[in-house]
Specification:
The complex is a heterodimer of chains A (762) and B (262). By secondary structure, chain A is α+β, with helices and mostly antiparallel strands. Chain A is built from 25 helices and twelve strands. In chain A, strands 2-5-1-6 form a four-stranded antiparallel sheet, sandwiched between helices. Chain A is elongated. The relative contact order of chain A is 0.12. With 262 residues, chain B is of the alpha+beta class. Chain B has one domain: outer membrane lipoprotein receptor (LolB), chain A, CATH 2.50.20. In chain B, strand 12 and strand 13 form a beta hairpin. Chain B is globular, with a radius of gyration of 21 Å. Classes of the chains: A alpha+beta (762), B alpha+beta (262). At the A-B interface, strand 4 and helix 18 of A face strand 5 and strand 6 of B. Strand 4 of chain A pairs parallel with strand 6 of chain B, so a sheet runs across the interface.
């Protein structure tokens, strides 16, 4: 019994037991779907890295010693003038006070509660920098700027050097596995309240806490905004393509029942709803849609040609079973290649799509025929302009086959020459540039402060109370100066700054004493004094260990690309290797170091993944066609869409981000599909003794239309993803849509001439 | 009819208003008794050990010794001198403080490496003390008059009956929103829960090793503070504590600081 007979038997069994098939499928589907309730809320940027990722471990080590690194920042900017206006200071003061109520907050610091020291002889008085605003004269308020700008701990941390922007920084001590929803919701309520109360002042919410929460909020807004409209679009598209209400219902049922259990499976597997996962249902939907359209349109055509409903669907099953299996398989293999990368959120998305593709295949060949057989369907004869156009195209291509090859080759070579402009790089700072509130606050913060993100360095003196050693502090100073001279750094704050300020204040406030004293005992006594006089939440515990052996540097990072940051880290390590002895450090750590290294490792993994999956797919295609020659020919139309796609990308950017790489792996399996359909039909045409010219016409007539339809479905699906608030989803959508579109054109315009010239002569 | 309703209403609410009244009254009474229980020591000298323990169990020990002079004026606070002994770098540092009930405390610090006495005025001393989990206000704030009290009821734990008191700081800039303390039948405070500014439990203080001095004053010789948020712990131990030793009152003047340091 050959394959076709087996499929026919299988189809008959399905139809005889259609009620059982439908019910058992539904039971299985709903059982798996139940897992959706176990889908995890995303853990922000921390969910973007593996727990054992080295640069994340560096962050965890820091946090164990000095407390959580996450900061929630309010950005206060008056519409005109500096923050040193009565109203603005009142706002900052009130907001600072209320910030102590922020859930999980451990410290709050701003210009108003900055501990300011005034010296009169041997009398030292320490108090809030801005105390009682109502009692201050206008002149006193205006004078505050000149005092603030000389304070190390204020400039670039609590206010911008220009004095135009004030920051309120809230350190958050989050328990494990709790996301930032509570503190961020709290902060947004304050933002709304204060912007209403002081209507000429902008209050923004920033910091790594907001950055982290963006992962959850974009997932939520994407899901609620994109899913309903995409479903509507699918319904319209399906009806246009099938022209049958019942067939459309079958198609939509199969699609929805492929999506729900894949999300259910994602839940059972404990996946997090990170922004990439939001794209999975849409990708599954478009893949399942193409299967359903193939199955149903051929069945409907068969009915208009006089077959009974059951004969029509069994015939369609016979024609489509192998291609649907093969295309689902190659799609799954391509997307599964994402697992070679290092970003769990993307692996989870990929695995969800792989599950969805598998379920989609199974339902297309079980549930779909059973429903088709059960439900009343009338087929209407469809006029197809598309098929006519395609047939004309086939004739034109045969006539001008050499010209097509030459023109497309020239185009490819021209575009290919642009590709060396591309570099692998990305910018984690742009992840949420499509979120208006985040972009707004970023545009306020970045020009004045560099960025919202901090880097840290834990420098160990290797002895108890070693940080009071002047040599140690001078080393910190040296490291600080070197760091500040680097383009990647905006400002640095160290414990040596605290000591210098104390030394100055203990010597009548004279600037010439703003330096590290040479006496270790004196430094220790200064710090003792300092520790007696600081208020709650302002101690040095987040800067030094209790035994005073190690201290933590705070480095405000500029907006660096991944490659800049990786090179920066390397330079830091080199400098430290040469200069830090006799002290020791693990170097620099923090989000601006971790995310870039994640990008690099991820790229390395994906390139390997791409090579493996691509070779595998070519092997599968070659063996499915049982031909080395066709296997080789298939490589051309499958590579060119990527070459052209990335060539065109150079017109927009020269940065190949992780998202672009993911787009390659997502689309590779889809691009191959059309080639498989075309080549297998071409081979079949030759086997029934058609001439190459006739074979091409045969292909255009029988697979041209399904290829166009499938590509249109995929193209619209991916184009739809560009609505996502998550920048990387936008790139994945746009890039995949572009590649699918080019692939369609190449399959129609280049593959036929290639086959005519390099294919087997009949 | 209307009058009957009013009377009924009054009858219903009367016991509550009475209770609210007594809850504060009883609270204050117990707090006062507990405070007065520790009074009458005239003066006190002792050595203290402060042990800082981080979440990994790593320990750091700091040593100080101190002298305290009881202020017999009920409207003013005590005076104390603290001598720092370890780490070695702070050896010889002396701190004199005059605590006050309503005003900011006065504080003078003699730094031997600088050879000078500095007067520190700081209105806000709610921060951690020498890297510990104890804030300066925890020491200076033992006076019951710095809080508003409320009696919450009784509790039996290990066959012992405790009074539960809630107290709210009535001075500015406190790091706490409230404290909940357990006082035993001998008016000794045994445990205090500190709630941070946002009302979440921050740390728990256990007062242990109570010893009866001069047959009338109970004093805890160990204070254990567990920070439940950052998981650090601090243990204070009083060693060689002696009461009523007849210290010269003049020692507690600023002018004596440099002399005492030697």
């Amino acid at each position: 019994m050959n394959l076709e007979d087996r499929i026919e038997n299988f189809g008959k069994i399905l139809i005889n037991h259609r009620i059982k098939v439908i019910f058992s499928t539904l039971i299985i589907i709903f059982t798996i779907t139940f897992g959706m309730k176990f889908l995890e809320t995303p853990s922000g940027y921390r969910g973007f890295v593996e727990d054992d990722f080295k640069y994340y471990q560096d962050v965890l080590d820091l946090e164990e010693k000095y407390g959580n690194i996450d900061v929630l920042t309010y950005v206060v900017k008056p519409d005109t003038g500096s923050i040193f206006q009565r109203e603005v200071l009142n706002l900052i003061h009130e907001l600072t006070e209320i910030s102590w109520q922020t859930p999980y907050s451990s410290r709050v610091s701003s210009i108003t509660n900055h501990q300011y020291t005034t010296v009169e002889g041997d009398d030292i008085s320490i108090s809030d920098f801005v105390n009682d605003i109502s009692k201050m004269s206008q002149a006193e308020i205006e004078n505050l700027y000149s005092l603030a700008v000389t304070e190390d701990a204020v400039v670039n941390f609590a206010m911008s050097e220009s004095g135009k922007i004030g920051l309120i920084n809230i350190n958050l001590e989050m328990p494990d596995d709790i996301n930032f929803k509570e503190p961020i919701d709290f902060a947004w309520k304050q933002k709304e309240y204060f912007e209403k109360k002081y209507n000429n002042v902008y209050v923004g919410v920033a910091g790594s806490a907001q950055f982290s929460q963006n992962f959850q909020s974009t997932s939520e807004s994407d899901a609620t905004k994109m899913y309903p409209s995409f479903l509507l679009l699918t319904i319209i598209l399906t009806y246009i393509l099938l022209r049958s209400v019942v067939a459309s219902i079958i198609s939509l049922t199969v699609i929805l029942l492929s999506i729900l259990p894949s999300l259910g499976a994602a839940g059972w597997l404990g996946f997090e709803v990170q922004p990439p996962l939001i794209t999975a249902p849409i990708i599954i939907l478009t893949i399942s849609l193409t299967h359903a359209i193939h199955m149903l349109s051929i069945a409907l055509t068969n009915m208009t040609e006089g077959m009974t409903k059951n004969e029509a669907i069994i015939e369609s099953l016979k024609i489509n079973f192998s291609p649907i299996f093969l295309t689902s398989f190659t799609t799954a293999v391509g997307i599964a290649g994402i697992n070679f990368g290092d970003i769990p959120a993307y692996s989870e998305m990929a695995n969800t799509v792989v599950i969805g593709a598998a379920i989609g295949f199974i339902l297309s060949v079980t549930l779909l025929p059973s429903m088709f057989s059960l439900l009343p369907i009338k087929a209407r004869k469809r006029k197809s302009y598309v098929i006519n156009v395609l047939q004309k195209l086939g004739e034109v291509i045969y006539k001008f086959k050499e010209r097509f090859i030459i023109i497309i080759s020239i185009l490819c070579i021209t575009v290919f020459s642009l590709i060396p402009n591309l570099t692998f790089d990305d910018f984690f700072g742009t992840y949420f540039d499509r979120v208006p509130a985040w972009l707004e606050v970023k545009n306020v913060v970045d020009p004045e402060f560099g960025s919202s993100f901090y880097i840290f360095s834990d420098v160990q003196s290797n002895e108890t109370d070693g940080i009071t050693n002047p040599e140690y502090l001078k080393k910190l100073d040296e490291f600080e100066s070197w760091l500040i001279s680097q383009d990647e750094v905006s400002d640095v704050s160290t414990i040596s700054d605290v000591v210098k300020t104390l030394h100055k204040n203990m010597n009548g406030g004279l600037d010439e004493y703003y330096k590290i004293p040479d006496d270790k005992a004196l430094i220790a006594q200064y710090l003792l004094l300092y520790e007696f006089s600081v208020p709650y939440g302002m101690d040095l515990k987040n800067q030094m260990t209790a035994d005073k052996s190690d201290s933590r540097m705070l480095i405000r990072s500029n907006n660096n690309t991944s490659m800049q940051a990786v090179a920066f880290k390397q330079r830091v390590d080199e400098w430290l290797n040469k200069n830090i002895a006799p002290y020791s450090t693990e170097g620099v750590a923090g989000i601006p170091i971790m995310m870039p290294h994640l990008f690099v490792e991820n790229t390395r993994g994906l390139v390997i993944g791409l090579l493996i999956t691509f070779s595998f797919i070519i092997l599968v295609v070659g063996s499915a066609l049982r031909s080395f020659r066709y296997g080789l020919i298939s490589i051309v139309p499958n590579i060119i869409p990527f070459v052209l796609g990335f060539g065109i990308l150079t017109l927009v950017t020269n940065m190949v981000t992780a998202a672009h790489q993911f787009a390659v792996l997502i689309s590779i399996g889809l691009v191959v599909d059309a080639t498989i359909h075309f080549l297998s039909k071409y081979k079949k045409a030759l086997s029934i003794n058609l001439s190459p010219q006739e074979a091409i016409q045969y292909c255009f007539r029988y697979v041209g239309y399904p290829i166009v339809v499938a590509s249109v479905c995929l193209f619209s699906g991916f184009l739809f993803l560009t609505q996502s608030m998550f920048y990387y989803n936008f790139i994945v959508g746009g890039m995949c849509a572009l590649i699918i579109l080019i692939a369609l054109l190449i399959d129609l315009l280049l593959l036929p001439p290639l086959l005519l010239i390099f294919g087997k002569k009949a | 009819m209307r009058y009957i309703k009013l009377i009924l209403l009054a009858l219903i609410f009367f016991p509550f208003s009475l209770q609210a009244d007594t809850a504060e009254g009883v609270g204050l009474k117990i707090a006062k008794a507990s405070y007065e229980n520790g009074r009458g020591f005239i003066d006190m000298v002792s050595d203290q050990l402060m042990i800082l323990i981080d979440p990994k169990g790593k320990e750091v020990i700091r040593e100080v010794s101190s002298k305290t002079l009881e202020n017999l004026d009920p409207d003013d606070g005590d005076k104390s001198i603290t001598f720092f002994k370890t780490p070695k770098d702070v050896e010889g540092t002396v701190m004199l403080s005059h605590t006050h009930i309503s005003d900011d405390d006065d504080q003078w610090l003699y730094l031997p490496a600088l050879g000078r006495v500095k007067r520190i005025s700081s209105s806000n001393k709610s921060g951690a003390f020498m890297g510990s989990e104890v804030a300066f206000e925890d020491f200076s704030g033992t006076d019951y008059r710095k809080y508003n009290w409320r009696y919450l009821g009784e509790k039996i734990e290990n066959d012992e009956t405790f009074f539960i008191l809630e107290s709210f700081p009535n001075y500015k800039n406190s790091g706490y929103s409230k404290r909940i303390s357990l006082t035993d039948s001998l008016d000794r405070t045994r445990k205090v829960d500190f709630y941070d500014r946002k009302g979440e439990l921050l740390k728990i203080l256990y007062l242990e090793d109570y010893e009866l001095y001069k047959d009338k004053i109970w004093m805890a010789n160990t204070m254990r503070v567990e920070n439940v948020q950052n998981k650090n712990m601090t243990i204070f131990k009083w060693l060689n504590r002696e009461l009523d030793t007849g210290i010269d009152k003049k020692d507690f003047e600023k002018s004596s600081l440099m002399r005492l340091a030697d």
